[in-house]
Amino acid sequence: MSNEKKPPGFSTLAVHAGVEPDPSTGAIMTPVYMTSTYVQEGIGQHKGYEYSRSSNPTRDALEAAFAALEGGRHGLAFASGLAAIDAVLMTLKPGDEVIAGDDLYGGTRRLFTTHYEPFGIQFHFVDTQDPANVAAKLNDRTRLVWLETPTNPLLRVSDIAAIAGLLAGHPARLAVDNTFATPALQNPLKEGADIVMHSVTKYLGGHSDVVMGALMTKEAALDAELRTLQNNVGAIPGPMDCFLVLRGIKTLGIRVRQHCANGRAVAEWLEAHPKVDTVFWPGFSSFPNHAAAARQMQDFGGMISFTLVDDSLDASRAVCESTRVFALAESLGGVESLIEHPALMTHASVPAEQRAALGINDSLIRLSCGIEDAEDLIADLDQAIGA
User: Fold this and answer.
1) Residue 31 three-state SS
2) What is the per-residue pLDDT for 3?
3) What does DSSP say about strands 173-177 and 327-328: parallel, antiparallel, or unpaired?
C-alpha cells in the first residue's frame, strides 16, 4: 500500500485553494481588506504589507488560488483580462516577434496590432491548429507564441504539448489563453506552457459581476518579472472584486460540469436541426483536432458557435434578438446563458476581410451555455430559430 498522498480532486481544490481561516477570528472566508496602506511599527518594519497596489491580503489569497488551480507556483491578478495580456507583451522589446493564432478574441488582436505593432514588435497570425504553421514562422527573433485553445469564436483547438515541443531550447515563451476551457478542463502548464492567462471575468468569477484577469506560471524568475510590471503599472483589482472571485471559484468545479452537460446537449440538438448549417464544438469526433482536445481536455465545455442554412445577416440577427432564456450580451462563462453575434459584437474590431478569411461570417452565432436546465435552453433556441 502506497504512502504517497493523493492530490485533492478539482472541486476540493477549488473550495480550499488559497484560503485559510482568518487567524484573528477563525472566519472561514478571507476578509476583505479595504485599505490602501498599512501602519509600520518603524521605518521598514511592517507585517509584510506596505501599500495595496503592491500587495493586499485578499488579493494574495486569490493569487495563491489562481496558482493552485492551474498547477502552477505563482499567480497574479489584474484589473482585466486585457491588462493581464498587456503585462505579458510588456516583457517584449522592439524587434521581437510574436506568433499568434489567427482566430483570437477581437480585443486581444486589437491590442497586438494597434498598440504593440507601432512599437516595433512584429506579429505573425497563423492557424495554430497545425503546429507546422508555428514552426514555419519560428526564428531567432521569436520571443512569444500566443495561443487560444479553444479559440474565440470558432472553438479551434491547438495541441499545446506539440507546440511546446517546438519551443524546447528556444528563448520564446509559450502563453495560453485558457479562458474557454477553464482550469477544470485543461491545464496548459502541465502541457509545457510557460504562462497561462484567464479572463477571470468569465468562468473563474462565474457570476457576471466582476471584471478581472489572471496570469499563472511555474517559474520564479518569470513571476518576478511580471510582478514588477504589475506593481509598476498598477492595473490591479480591488479587494472586493478579489473576494467575489474567491467566492466564485469555490463552485467552479460543479458549475463547469453543468456548463459541459448543457453544452453537449445543445450542440447535439443544433447538429440535428434542419435550419442549422455548421456547429462548432470540439466534442464532436468529426471536429478538427478533436483528438488533441480529447487528450488535453477533461470535457469540451459550454461554448458553441453555429451558422444557419439561411446565411443572411437578417436571419442571424433575428435568432439573436428572439431568445428569452439566452440573454443577448457580450462576455461568457457566467451562470446565465448568453447569445451574441461575433461579427457585430465581440469581433467587430477585426477587419471584415480578416473575419471573412477566418469564417466569422454574418451568419455566425456564439452561445455561452449557462447552468440552467438544458431542456429550457433547447426550447428557447427552438422557438428563436423557428421564428
Assistant:
1) coil
2) 66
3) unpaired
Contact between 88 and 113 under an 8 Å Cβ cutoff? The reply is no
Please give the CATH number for the structural domain made up of 10-249: 3.40.640.10
- Residue 93's Cβ-count burial label (10 Å; 0-12, 13-18, 19+) is exposed
C-alpha cell at 8: 485533492
Q: Which of the following is catalytic: 105, 143, 159, 299? A: 105
Q: Is the pLDDT of residue 387 over 90?
A: no
The mean pLDDT of 106-119, rounded to a whole number, is 96
Contacts of 31 (CB under 8 A, 6+ apart): 22, 57, 58
- Active-site entry in 59, 202, 255, 366: 202
Q: Which of 60, 96, 102, 177 is catalytic?
A: 177
Three-class SS of 183-216: CCCCCHHHHCCCEEEEECCCCCCCCCCCCCEEEE
Residue 49 has pLDDT above 90, yes or no: yes
Q: Is 53 a catalytic residue?
A: yes
Assigned fold of 254-386:
Aspartate Aminotransferase, domain 1 (3.90.1150)
Q: Any idea where the domains of the chain sit in the sequence? A: 10-249, 254-386
**Active-site residue 202, yes or no?**
yes
Q: What are the pLDDT digits (tens) for 326-359? A: 999 999 999 999 999 999 998 988 888 888 888 8
Let me know if 105 is a catalytic residue. yes
> What is the average pLDDT value for the chain, to the nearest integer?
96
Asked whether the predicted pLDDT for residue 29 surpasses 80, the reply is yes
